Amino acid sequence: MGVFFIYILKSSVCLVLFYLFFRLLLSKETFHRFNRMALLGVLFFSLLIPCIEVTTRHQVEVQQAVLSIEQLLLMAELEATPANVGAVQETPAISWVQIVLLVYLAGILFLACRNIYSLICLFRLIHSGKHEKLEKGVTLVVHNQEIAPFSWMKYIVISRKDLEENGREILIHEMAHIHHRHSVDLLVADICIFFQWFNPGAWLLKQELQNVHEYEADETVINEGVNAAHPIIIGGMHKS
Fold this sequence. Notes:
The chain crosses the membrane at residues 6-26, 38-56, 101-126. By secondary structure, the protein is of the alpha+beta class.
């Protein structure tokens, strides 16, 4: 468990550094597709780089600090492991490393319960509405109750009121999300948050991805001839 936790810490540091790099150099760019790929690249490389070992003749300060943390965690884990399993020993005191790991696992458990609950609510919402098949295998789910329109995988959920008032614009917007597979991006980001819930960079990166998704979808709506001042476009900008 200690080795895995060290990997998570390294990955978290990489993610924060890459995210800060993105914010400084690329966040103001209007090439939304490129920004999206850059954010997904941040996720990918932050998971990959900790697996790569780089050896140098002289250790730099950062490398020495990382090694010190690794050694500290591994030594604490070894101290917490009984030297002789067969011998009768006193109950060892809980080390600080074990406390940290327990807090970490508690956070994962909390997120797991929250995500399962959210999925159950989502499935209930999808199955309780009136279904209508659209193009490319997309299913439109219409509800009589007032809910904010959204899309998830191959489903578009919308209230009947919104469908009657701004149905065309909303459907174009949500179809763009589905076409670009934005739900997959958010699923990957959620998996990252699941293991790095303590890392603010992971949460901020997901928010940045959602912003880019909204800009991409709004761009599609505008390209379809909808006025940029339309409430759907403005609402998407406020949401992001």
